[in-house]
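Hello,

Our lab assistant flagged a job as stuck in the queue for most of the afternoon. It eventually completed. Since we weren't sure the result was trustworthy after the delay, we are filing this so someone can double-check. Below is the sequence as submitted and the structure that was eventually returned. Let us know if re-running is recommended.
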Amino acid sequence: MSVNLLIAFYSRGGVTETLALGAAEGARAAGAEVRLRRVHDIVSEEIKAKVSGWKEHSERMIATYGPPTVEDAVWADGILFGTPTRFGNVSAELKAFIDSLGGIWVKGALNGKAGGVFGSSGTIHGGNESTLLSLYHPLAHLGFIIVPTGYADPSLFKAGSPYGATSVSYNKDAPPTEDDLAVARFQGRRTVEVAAALKSAKQS
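-- returned structure --
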């Protein structure tokens, strides 16, 4: 069965972007059509200029992926949301996109879609798990069937979390490890498999 997966993420230096690419790889290997989208920044150019590379990375990612739209969310059978940790919580940029979905939420357009989350932090114990769990709340309100990674694949015994793929950049934009990416690929595949089952159940 054909499955559409939207991966909507925010990434400032490219770490969460790399996890998104891993999830997309796993999803495509499972037969899904994938749309990768990077949400817009919401801070001023003055603020971005204070962090080396922020503006350049932002422009590259928006040019490469484009921002997610409400139409992307309607198109998708499943959505993965990715975010860096911001003080133990979801980034404001990704949350702004989630908040924009109210118009289709009220129509029930997201009910029964598969949903999952992944993220990155700057330090060990930097808030990855609390951030992913904080994203479960709006997913539940929007009507998603939340798909955790659990320990359903051997990769989860080496990296990630039972809530979603994770990475630690050690405040140096260190890229995800191969173990991190193995979890991301599994998460993409698992989300597609659940989305396919849900879609089939709706059609039968």
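-- support follow-up --
The delay was a queue issue, not a problem with the job. The result is valid. The domain at 4-203 is CATH 3.40.50.360 (Rossmann fold). Residues 178-203 form the longest helix (26 residues).
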